[in-house]
Amino acid sequence: MDGIVAAWLRLEARRRGRSLLVLALLVAFGTATVLTAVAGARRGGGAVDRLLAVTAPATAVVLPNQAGFDWAALRALPQVEAVTTFPGYISTVVAEDPGDDTPSPFVAADTEAMTTVERPVVLAGRLPDPASAHEAVVTPAYAARGFGVGRRVTVLLPTPDDAAAGIGGGRTGPPRGPRVPVTIVGVVRSAWYADEPDGRGHFIPSPGLVAAYPDEILGPDRQAPLNGLVRVAEGGLPALRAWLAGRGDVEVADRADELAHVRQVIGFETGCLLVFAVAAFLTAVVLVGQAVFRYATASAADLRPLTLVGMTRRQAATATAAAVLPSAVLGGGVGVLGAVLASAWLPYGTAALYEPSPGVDADLPVLLLGWPAAVVLVAAGAAVTALLPRARPAPRRSAVTRLALPVPVTTGLRFALEPGNGVALSGAVTGVLGVVAAAVFAAGVADAAARPERFGQHYALMAVFGFDGRVSTPARPALESIAALPGVAGVLDLRIASGRSGQVSVVAHTYDPVEAPVPLVLTEGAEPASGHDVVLALTTARELGVGVGDRIPLTGEAGTREMRVSGLGFAVESTTTGYDTGAWITPAAYDAIFTGFKEHGGLVVLDPGGDPSAVARRITGGPGGRLLVFPPFTPPQRAEIRNVAVLPVALGVFLTALALGATAHALSTAVRRRGRDLAVLRALGLTPGQTRGVVVVQAVVTAVIGLVTGVPLGLALGRVLWRAAAGIMPLQYVPPSAPLVWLGPAALLAVVVLALSPGRRAARIGLGAALRAE
């Protein structure tokens, strides 16, 4: 009998070689897609930890925002392992990058940068010579814009006088000082030197630039406040906070808290990728399963005569499985290779910005398990199909037959609602659910991308009056003149100081409208109305574990006051703090808790449809001509939310393929399984056109059930996903809605097209052969 099986396999290779090759390609595509998604999720989920393990990361960012801070005393603390400092308000501009008027956010003021703290991984080239003023490194996004290793650029520095004016918050115009030739010697990455989503990247000069041009960067009297990256021993951060508590307006940003948001975003991306892997797996099961089912069914029919010479059903199933085994092995191997090659594009989204070893990566545990799993599933599917009983199930009386409907409609309904069509119905529901959920999620993304107020930015312009307690322009008269300009809806007088509540740093902002009231963007509660009210940004409230109505102590250099949480919402995005951290308090509360300010500015709210550029020109062209006026800083979360939108959409595409594949298989199978029923109806007078109508009705009923069930489920799922994303970012949640009027016609058109081929086969059934077969 083994000889018969071997001869059968040789015969199958010649007769159905093309079908087996198509099967191998389907297996390869399915295997590659599923393994790529699973391996990408594992790689992205561990990106931050792997980067931190090799880069000596900073524990905290210390922001004294005051000149003359005693960094030597901080370095001498026993818990402090490394410190590097950088000026808070002065940095550099690259002349060859005219599209970027934002200076580099980091210019190291000492040689510990990139060595003892935040030592980046080098993706290309090398680290700069810390003693040279003519070398720099860049992040990957900056290099991708044509500024790679070896590129020579010109760094523009301000004059000492302009540097001093800039430190005080004055508007200085383009740099007019030295032009320094600099060569880019490396492309680097660490948690600190990381690109923002959709950002232009960063240019990071050597510490030697500050040593060579101190007056132009730090000011002629070294008045530029220095901030610092600090790495402390494990468990040493509370002691550092306690040491800093009595040294004025010093903000401490815990890097672990900042990276917690990154981990949340990556976790969401990873979860979406795993769900995508499940959807891809189900789609592969349906598509590959159809090919296996068709081959195994045909093979079983051809093997039936061999049972007359002693072949058992188990041996027939073994022969069928053995015939598809080479295709499964070949397809699985090609799929594994494809997954390895596709790993060069993963991880995606935020995780890609923290991947320490970008490029091709072979996740051996996933690959070594995925390949044999694909082979086993294909071979087992073929064997089980071959073992299925061939007897047609006895017809059962259906309630559909009692309906006074035309025969094609009644028959199509019976085919659609019989138990054997359950996979198609489930696939249709799942496909519609996925499409609707993806559309709703995409609508939420589009809304957030188009509306900065979802991230708390109800204001369109920011003005600066002074830094570090020094005033460059009297604030109140300037704000009153701005409020009187046409197109301005409201203005907030904004003073900022760093306080704390327990061990949590809280950056306080004054809620001080000038003339017209200016509402804050809140998720719940109300604006502060008294000197004991506080509105907390969402992340700060989460760190404190409080909600509306709770009470917290708020401490500044002038004292401590117990505050009642009147609302939760968003604060102000800046170069050092995020919009999701901080607090709003009244001027009376501010004066009781703080003295001076870290920053003093104004937030300008425009009328709907107002032109920020035109209003900015009016401000700088009038009494506020010396003011530094600029648009709000863009939160990186606005780009992050666009990144996480990719996978739900891709998931919807795969679930659509799942629904179409399952429906096509059900229609084809129904024609094959119900061939005798259709032949009997044809013998009783059913026309070929009516026979095609039976298949169309089955397809339409399947689609209608999918729409009726899948649309509400998809709406609910899409909103749940969007609420989860809104909580992770965070942003103001507004229930998204998507126009879905196209979905019904599109689904019906798709299933009608799918019904054309099986409908033609049904209309061409040979009556005599079909009846004799039974």
From TrEMBL:
<feature type="transmembrane region" description="Helical">
    <location>
        <begin position="273"/>
        <end position="296"/>
    </location>
</feature>
<feature type="transmembrane region" description="Helical">
    <location>
        <begin position="737"/>
        <end position="756"/>
    </location>
</feature>
<dbReference type="GO" id="GO:0005886">
    <property type="term" value="C:plasma membrane"/>
</dbReference>
<keyword id="KW-0472">Membrane</keyword>
<feature type="transmembrane region" description="Helical">
    <location>
        <begin position="423"/>
        <end position="446"/>
    </location>
</feature>
<dbReference type="InterPro" id="IPR003838">
    <property type="entry name" value="ABC3_permease_C"/>
</dbReference>
<feature type="transmembrane region" description="Helical">
    <location>
        <begin position="366"/>
        <end position="388"/>
    </location>
</feature>
<protein>
    <submittedName>
        <fullName>FtsX-like permease family protein</fullName>
    </submittedName>
</protein>
<dbReference type="Pfam" id="PF02687">
    <property type="entry name" value="FtsX"/>
</dbReference>
<keyword id="KW-0812">Transmembrane</keyword>
<comment type="similarity">
    <text>Belongs to the ABC-4 integral membrane protein family.</text>
</comment>
<feature type="transmembrane region" description="Helical">
    <location>
        <begin position="692"/>
        <end position="717"/>
    </location>
</feature>
<feature type="domain" description="ABC3 transporter permease C-terminal">
    <location>
        <begin position="651"/>
        <end position="765"/>
    </location>
</feature>
<feature type="transmembrane region" description="Helical">
    <location>
        <begin position="317"/>
        <end position="346"/>
    </location>
</feature>
<keyword id="KW-1003">Cell membrane</keyword>
<dbReference type="InterPro" id="IPR050250">
    <property type="entry name" value="Macrolide_Exporter_MacB"/>
</dbReference>
<feature type="transmembrane region" description="Helical">
    <location>
        <begin position="645"/>
        <end position="671"/>
    </location>
</feature>
<dbReference type="GO" id="GO:0022857">
    <property type="term" value="F:transmembrane transporter activity"/>
</dbReference>
<keyword id="KW-1133">Transmembrane helix</keyword>
